[in-house]
Amino acid sequence: MTTQRSPHDYHFHIKDALVGMQFLFVAFGALVLVPILTGLNPSVALFGAGLGTIAFQLIMKFLGKSEIPPIFLASSFAFIAPISVGVQQWGIAGTMSGLIAAGLFYVVFSFIIRFAGSGFLNRLLPPTVIGPVIMSIGLILSPVAVNMALGRTADGTVIVPKDTALLVSFTTLAAVLVVSIMGKKMWKLVPILVGIVVGYTLSFALGIVDLSKVSQAAWFSVPEFTTPKLNWEAVLFIMPIAIAPVVEHIGDMLAISGVTGRNYLQKPGLHNTLLGDGVATILASAIGAPPNTTYSEVTGAVTMTKAFNPAIMTWAAIFAIVLAFSGKLGALLGTIPMPVMGGIMLLLFGIITVVGIKSLANVDLNCPRNIAIVAIILVFAIGGMSFEFGGVGFSGIGLGAISGIILNLLLPRASQEPSSEEK
Q: Which of 129, 239, 253, 400 has an alpha carbon within 20 to 30 A of 138's alpha carbon?
């Protein structure tokens, strides 16, 4: 008698490679955007993402009782500003020492949770806080998707004419929707890959695909790795910034838990996932890559495809590492027009928002206390509020989450309102 595997179990099959490649396609745009914006090497970022994801999975395998969340770790947007400043002031090598310190901060925090226990998380992170934090992850990224779909950068620079960009992005989106809703069997697992192929083909026909860099690129090239050099100024500048990404990590783990129906904060446990994220960041920074974080767009793709087998992320990591050494393949992926990825992101970032809305299903939004917490989180995270404490800036998702946690602890409950522990 054979034992049927759960779709959440880790089982490594060649047939999952195509789905893994699809998830790498989903992550590719954001993955290489961070190094491009900060002056780091995109090929090194690819290698760092693959290395970090595999390291995360190994830690979950041996410390998390084989419970492995289906997530892909890659370049963190939270560190764009400090990396940009650091590269200009201390060079890449000095900046990497600060980023390694940030990874060590994750590790230290993971041990605090390990010894203090995770029971306090129910008080710290009830659905009233969880829901809007997850929603803000999708909503705060939505302008990125819209700009890409319109063929322009965040500062308004037009890369592709608007009419052409809309035709490509909407065709790509339509292809993804048709396959995800009406597709059967294997097609059901690769709607995003189909969307990319359809969008790329249309883009090629419209003449907005530039293949010149592909012909110029070498078939094999070793990424330009950078060895860190200790710089205490960089360490003191960058390490405190890790506080906000730690909170974002919790939101990301809540998101994938909501998607899969598994409580990854309990098993493998937040202490192990945060340790894995920290080690992934340290390894990436040790070779000159940006810090790693869980990718929301990949979580959105997992939601759509229901591909919960974490081995698929191993395939994505393997492809990322191989791609790092392939100049031709890297250049070819770089030719995917912005509107193609924009059409896909329009759906994926929206899906993350819906996951957050589902988390609020059992929250009483007639209660003034709950309304206040949800409202402040969303407005602070999405509206661009920023605070500075001791020279360290807080904004975006991190600030929204921290504000929600503080309000949840400080605001008095109505006498008839149960606490999160009583629910």
A: 239
